[in-house]
Amino acid sequence: MPDGDLDALALRASGVGLWSFVPGRYTVTIDDVTARLVGAAEPGTFPVADLMGALHPDDRKGLFAALESVSRACQLALRAGGPPGGRGGRAGLGALRDLQVLEEFRVRDDDTVRWVRLRGGVVLDGTGGAVVTGVAADTTALRTSRERTGRTLAQVSDGVLILEPDWTVAYVNDTAAALLGRAGADLVGRPFWVEVPEAEDSPVHVNYHWAMDHQRPVTFETPTVGGWLEVRAHPSIDGLTVYLRSVEARHEAERERGRIVTRLERALARGRQLLGLTRSLSTAMTVQDVADAVTANARRALGTVFAGIALVEKTGRTMEYVSMSPLPAETAAVWSRFPLDRSAPVSDAARHGRPYFHETVEQAVEDFPDIGPHMRTAGTESMAHLPLVTGSGSRLGTLALSWSTEHTMSGEERDFLVTLAGHTAQALERALLFEQQRTVADALQHAVLPDRLPTVPGVTLGAVFVPATGGHEVGGDWYDAFVLPSGRLGLAVGDAAGHGLPAARVMSGLRNALRSYALLGGGPGDVVERLDAFVEQYDPDTFATIAYLELDPATGEGVWCSAGHPPLLRIAPPDAAGSGERATFFGDDVDPPVGSLLTAGAREHPFRLDPGETLVLFTDGLVERRDDDLDHGLDRLIATAAAVPPELSPPDLVRAICDTLLAGSGPTDDVCLLAVRRGTAAAGRPEDDPSAPDAVVRHVLQPVPSAAYVARSVAREALRSWGLTDLVDTVTLVVSELVTNAVTHAGGEVALELRRLDDAVRVSVTDTSPDTPQHQDPGPREEHGRGVHLVDVLAARWGTTALPDGKRVWAELDVP
Questions:
Q1: Which of 474, 721, 746, 806 could cross-link to 693 by cystine, CB 3.0-4.6 Å?
Q2: In this structure, are residues 105 and 115 in contact, taking their beta carbons and an 8 Å threshold?
């Protein structure tokens, strides 16, 4: 028996029939099995329409449409391919081989309905025509099983898709159909790759085939039009079961997390930018400091080609840019200062208190028609102008930013720029207030300092005052220089505790009191003691340090007294300086600050300033640093003073010292320097001779009757050594009266001091009694009570200084 007959018998035995369809003729040839399946009375060749009667009405249209589609495709392929053996025959044959028929429909048989599946392909006959031939099978049992399985799988939350080995869709539940974006009825019984086309390199195509080829399950995720799907494919010899689950919510959550992370990163970046600006502004004291910090931060962090600050002037009619770099010169000339009512974003932002954002030149020109040429000249494509509004609502000006390319500003960036402008406005408000207070402080500070230093033959003076960096209050540092009636030079440097108006009040009072006490005579010790008593009465809760000295310009002889003040600095002339010791300190033997109740009195210390030597008095702000030891500051001062060019005058000297020691951030406290340099010695004066006797003679007397005699002897010897023999009688009489009075009324030790002044001799007698000498009116026969009258007549000047443990009575007698 031929192989074809054996195949037919095998098919018939299996309940599978044969059929063929001639495209273009719309006739179907069926065998007896197929005839029974489709409800035909007998096998044979029939028009397609004659076989439709037994089909379910809902399925007729689908079967006819499928046969019509393959018929049309065959005709087109045959025409494209040409006659058999022609050039296009092979191409036409390939096209025909791709054509398939796969339809499943219902057939009514009495009261029952059975499912029939037609499957076929296209073959060429010997005449150059095409025939669609295939098999027919009853799939009712399979359908029933699928429906039973479908009802079970319909309860599964996942989508379920069952594919046969030939990739025909055997089952799809509603969830899977929805995930695939198709109706389930349109998929069942249809080729999966036709209904759901996928590229050969797509995840679905690659993984489905891999699972079937290797008979191993596979799980993967793939994007679809409806979102991401998780696919689990389980292969078997009966086909491929696929479980589908939407994981779009998880992917959306991941995307949202990504968006949140991105927003947080941008927020952190903005926060770091604001932190950097805040750090820069924390050290910005002036308006220019603020402008420099903001513009530098904007150019670095925002990528701007220009950043500037324009402030409304006090008149309220004009605006002026604080910084305009790096604008072209022609642009800067137009916009450096301009009317507030000019129609421009920089002025409108300040005037109306609202920001302007222009991402393109066209947007800017739409709002401000005249701005276009200026933007082109400046090379600007995008701009932002932010009003600088303080917390109290004051409009200080505008922060202007521009970019060289079109710059899209999101809502987040715009909010950040507004915040940036707010920080800038606060810093500017502080800077403006600081500058105003600094101006007042400077005026007040200079009001209590001397307008100019005195001109004194034989010496040169220089002074400088440097306010603390960042300070806006007047400090307590001061200096003074004046000429005493005796011709001696008085020099003082002081530092009242604290800052502000209280310190200024104390400083002013001390300076005025010191001058007054110095003019009364008595020497530096007497002046400092009087200042201590003054502070106790004037402001008991404060104290001050003071260094005061009196210098004879002609002889270089002087006396200094220090109340808690830094040491004095001596700078030797170049030709007299030893190796590495041009600058030295002296005067570290100091008393407590004034206001500290000096119980032991103020000590005086003599010194001599040789020709060419310079003496520098200074306040502690010159050498003190919060982060360094005071000794290091003093060492730096010594090294600086020694390195200063010797040819510098005292005014240049003090400025050079300040410039060197205060370079960088400036002083943290106010600084005063006062320098005096002695010139060449005057000729013809014995005091210029180093072998000349001391200008001060002191002697302590016991409270005995012979004290006056001893005192007269001491005075007589001192006057003779000074060559003032003409004053011996007068001075010894005054000394006798003052010592006698002290011994009589005090009862303790008496200190006698005689001092050779430039044009006078001073006699000072110190005792332990607080009672001051009083004028009396003795009778003609009385022996006592005339001492004060004698002193008043003989002395050119005399007075009394109260001390914590007594008093000092002094008298000056002019040298003829």
A1: 721
A2: yes
pLDDT of the residue at 493: 95
In degrees rounded to 5, what are phi and psi of residue 580?
70, 15
Residue matched to tokens 């003076």: 461
Residue 566 — φ and ψ, nearest 5°?
Answer: -60, 160
Tell me how far apart the alpha carbons of residues 311 and 399 are, in angstroms, rounded to a whole number: 9
In terms of Cα–Cα distance, which of 255, 292, 237, 300 is closest to 273?
300
Bond before 326 cis per omega within 30 degrees = yes
Identity of the residue numbered 560: W
3-state secondary structure 282-317: HCCCCHHHHHHHHHHHHHHHHCCCEEEEEEECCCCC
**How many Å apart are CA 487 and CA 799, to the nearest integer?**
19
Q: Which helix (H) or strand (E) holds 146?
A: helix 140-153
Q: What's the farthest any 2 CA atoms get from each other in the chain?
A: 189
- Token pair of 146 as six digits: 């699928």
pLDDT band (50, 70, 90) for residue 786: low
Instruction: Report the range of poorest mean pLDDT among 96-110, 343-357, 567-581.
Output: 567-581
Which of 741, 697, 701 lies closest to 717 in space, CA to CA?
A: 697
Indicate if the alpha-carbon torsion angle 189, 194, 195, 199 is positive or negative. positive
Kindly indicate the confidence band of residue 289, based on its pLDDT and cuts at 50, 70 and 90.
confident
Which stretches within 585-649 are classed as H helix? 630-643
- Report which of 623, 620, 616, 624 is spatially closest to residue 654, judged by C-alpha positions: 616
For the chain, give the number of residues: 816
| pLDDT, tens digit (0-9, with 9 covering 90-100), for 599-645 | 667 899 999 999 999 999 999 989 888 777 888 889 999 999 999 98
Rg (alpha carbons) of the chain, rounded to whole number: 57
Query: Read out DSSP for 500-554?
Result: SHHHHHHHHHHHHHHHHHHHH-SHHHHHHHHHHHHHHHH-TT--EEEEEEEE-TT
Residues 6+ apart with CB under 8 A from 150: 171, 173
